[in-house]
Design goal:
It is a single-pass type I membrane protein. The protein is of the alpha+beta class. It has 15 helices and 39 strands. Strands 4, 7, 10, 13, 14, 18, 21 and 24 form an 8-stranded mixed sheet that branches. It has a 6-stranded mixed sheet with strand order 25-29-30-28-27-26, with helices on both faces. Strands 1-3-8-5-6 form a 5-stranded mixed sheet, with no helix packed on it.
């Protein structure tokens, strides 16, 4: 209740903040500081530019109502934010955690962050959950001497160090979510772009780099993580006005904005200037009429960025949408390759009053697609209702007709459909050559869908896996259609890549990357292969979890795999895990617009892995995949199948048949250590094992609501890996306090002076400008 301040001495910030090592549950429900009087947090920091990140989690406490949370936050002479009733008008408390990121320059080594409740409202209060202060290299965003194009104006614009910035959007275009620890040392988060994309999905696609991303003296490595430049969204089309990709990004009116576009030429076919020329439009005005990435970067695989200033200084009561479009060049894709964009950052610039305060302090209004007309939607819904009534009245007759023609109709439509723009068309003769006429000697496996062969393409230089559908399998048709639909749109390090397909002669053949080390199950039991080390098993589980997490969260529509099992986790020659076999997968509800959290569908999957709640209620959710993955985790730990074949000698031990049930039984009876793979006994750090088993058990909860998300599973598996690494490092040299270590298996671990490893550093040898980030002084 008192006016006061908190002095944070320099010594308290000699190590990396532990925030990123906190459990996800804590991150979602952090503690809160409430101030009824003005209060200042003082940080002693080095001079120079800083990130200031303020974490807010609006709450509901007795005696405190969010309508009274009216306050401002200031740093030096800048007003960073000012809340009002509009800040909370559309706020959903269950999904309102907000991080506000600002950039400001510190001249005297002292940073004061002041929270001031509104003096005009009785009982007003301020609150904050966390404050981060992170140093950044000079000239990262503000370069005083550089003139920037002002969109729609002939005169240039200069950003002075006297300006403060607020990050509005930071997108990994065409890529996945990049968490803070995987940034280049500044703990920025990069989110996918799909929810801001307004053009039809058929007009754009995702491309993955086939060249190595290189560092350049022109663009320092810390500008953006390599993941941003390793993928891009591209425009699909012939160069007409419809061949574009457009994003709409909400911004506050009354300000100028810095728009940074990240580019990287990621095709190995790009050999010179003029290979890819396209147009860039911002706010419906030309930003680049002849964008040529190779010209800017002087090579393929070399990142480059372009900065622009956009004027939204006219005040209105509503938020504006900043539009960004990339269009193919006028010469069509036969002349120029399609337009691409790799990343995007948008910053608000402080106004003439040194303020960044907008009307919507926490979160932003839900995005709505301006191309969708309400009237058209209403007519469509009515038509669907009338159609459903007619369909139900004719159902008995229709069913007989459908049963007779559906199979042929589906096959014909599938064969005539256009191939995905992201996979190659193979002739049947090419496939025969690749598999030596489908030789049994190259057979890798078989199932209800057909057979899988090992093959080689491009003159034998590339090994592939070729899946050939059984022409008589109706199941195979549906599964192959689903795989083409999904895999032609998915690109992820931990999801198997679809290379191409063949539809000639009524064949349905898919061509994938070859996985040299086969399935995960092959290395756990039955195949008499050398057992995997605990560390390798953890890395494989982490890779599979990353793939599943991407499926669940990588776009506005979640994807539920529905057949997660050890035989559907493949391992390449470097033991990188990749999730495969999407034949049973289902598209989940739109996470942005639909309140439903499940898909009602008939039960499909594999015995031993089936979610019991899904089996009973036919309601499929992402948590169904979590349950199946929990079974896989115990397969990895125990080196035994999910279901044992029952023999006469086992009739008295029927409780051992189902792995999930047997694991829970042994845990409750205190015999859990007896079912662990004997090879692993004495080779696992106890803390690592406990972290692993705790999250694996939670995955097997009877109800989906009791299970963690795949993000939480991934976090815990990474913690188990880090705990094992810490134990191994201690056993090897018994010495902590090292700034950087590189483990034998190639993963970099940053270790602070307390010996807590922090995973995900992109640059294991940062330069002098990062001396405060390895051991940040003002954090």
């Amino acid at each position: 209740n008192d006016i006061g301040s908190l002095h944070v001495p320099r010594a308290n910030f000699s190590v990396v903040s532990k925030y990123y090592a906190l459990a996800p549950v804590y991150r979602q429900n952090p503690k809160v500081c409430i101030h009824k009087k003005p209060f200042t947090y003082t940080f002693l920091v080095s001079s120079g530019p800083k990130f200031i990140r303020l974490h807010f989690n609006p709450f509901s406490f007795s005696g405190f109502h969010m309508s009274k949370a009216l306050f401002s936050v200031s740093v030096a002479h800048f007003t960073l934010l000012k809340t009002s009733n509009a800040s909370y008008s559309k706020l959903q408390l269950h999904d309102s955690y907000t991080v506000k990121e600002f950039c400001t320059n510190v001249d005297d080594g002292v940073l004061n962050v002041t929270f001031t409740p509104s003096p005009d409202v009785s009982d007003a209060f301020a609150f904050v959950n966390k404050i981060e202060v992170v140093s950044m290299p000079s000239n990262l965003y503000i370069q005083e001497a550089v003139s920037l194009p002002l969109i729609g104006q002939a005169s240039p614009y200069y950003i002075k160090n006297s300006k403060a910035l607020e990050m509005m959007h930071r997108l990994n275009i065409g890529g996945e979510f990049i968490p803070a620890p995987e940034d280049t040392g500044m703990f920025r988060t990069w989110i996918p772009d799909a929810s801001f994309l307004t053009t039809d999905g058929s007009n754009s696609g995702i491309v993955i780099s086939d060249v190595q991303i290189k560092q350049s003296s022109r663009i320092p490595a810390y500008v953006g993580p390599k993941q941003v430049y390793a993928s891009a969204r591209t425009v699909v089309g012939d160069g007409s006005n419809q061949s574009r990709a457009t994003w709409l990004l909400p911004v506050d009116s009354g300000f100028y904005y810095l728009v940074r576009l990240h580019f990287c030429e990621i095709s190995n076919k790009a050999k010179g200037v003029g290979y890819r020329v396209f147009h860039v439009y911002i706010k419906d005005q030309t930003a680049e009429d002849q964008a040529d990435i190779f010209l800017w970067s002087h090579g393929a695989g070399i990142p480059v960025y372009r900065d622009y200033i956009v004027n939204f200084s006219e005040h209105t009561k509503r938020r504006k949408n900043l539009s960004l479009s990339i269009h193919n060049g006028n010469g069509s894709i036969r002349t120029f390759k399609p337009a691409i964009l790799n990343g995007l950052e948008i910053f608000k610039l402080s106004d003439s009053n040194n303020s960044l305060a907008g009307p919507f302090s926490f979160g932003m209004a839900k995005y709505s697609n301006p191309w969708r007309k309400e009237g058209a939607t209403y007519i469509k819904i009515c038509a669907q209702i009338i159609g459903c009534i007619f369909f139900l009245s004719c159902l008995p007759t229709l069913w007989q007709i459908v049963a007779a023609i559906d199979w042929k109709g589906q096959r014909k439509a599938f064969m005539q459909s256009q191939s995905s723009d992201h996979c190659q068309n193979f002739t049947f003769d090419e496939v025969k050559v690749a598999t030596n006429n489908f030789s049994d000697a190259l057979l890798l496996g078989a199932g209800g869908y057909g057979k899988v062969y090992k093959g080689s393409i491009n003159g034998g230089t590339n090994l592939v896996a070729i899946k050939r559908a059984n022409p008589c399998s109706h199941q195979g048709l549906n599964e192959f259609q689903t795989e083409i639909l999904l895999l032609s749109q998915l690109r992820h390090r931990h999801i198997v890549s679809l290379i191409g397909c063949c539809k000639e002669r009524k064949e349905m053949i898919l061509v994938y990357d070859y996985m040299a080390n086969g399935t995960l199950r092959d290395h756990l039991y039955k195949m008499k292969k050398p057992p995997l080390s605990w560390t390798r098993r953890l890395k494989i589980c982490i890779g599979a979890a990353r793939g599943l997490h991407y499926l669940h969260t990588g776009s506005k529509h979640s994807i539920i795999h529905r057949d997660v099992k050890s035989t559907n986790i493949l391992l390449d020659q470097n033991w990188v895990a990749k999730v495969s076999d999407f034949g049973l997968s289902k598209i989940g509800p739109n996470m942005l617009t639909q309140s439903s959290t499940h898909v009602t569908t008939i039960v499909k999957g594999s015995f031993g892995y089936l979610d019991p709640e899904y089996y009973k209620r036919q309601k499929l959710t992402e948590k169904s995949d979590v349950y199946s993955f929990g079974v896989v985790l115990f397969e990895v730990l125990c080196a035994r199948p999910a279901v044992l074949q029952l023999t006469e000698n086992m009739e008295e031990e029927q409780e051992k048949v189902n792995l999930a049930e047997w694991v829970m039984h042994c845990y409750q009876s205190g015999r859990f250590d007896q079912i662990i793979d004997p090879y692993l006994q004495g080779k696992m750090d106890p803390t690592s094992l406990r972290t692993f088993t705790d999250i694996a058990r939670k995955c097997l909860g009877e109800k989906g609501s009791e299970r963690p998300t795949m993000g939480e599973v991934l976090w815990n598996l990474e913690q188990a890996w880090l705990q094992q690494q810490e134990s191994d490092c201690f056993q090897n040299d018994g010495n902590y306090g090292v700034a950087d270590k590189t483990t034998a298996n190639g993963l970099s671990v940053i270790v602070d002076v307390d010996g807590v490893p922090l995973h995900g550093a992109s640059d294991p040898t940062p330069g002098v400008e990062f001396s405060e980030i390895v051991a940040p002084i003002g954090r």
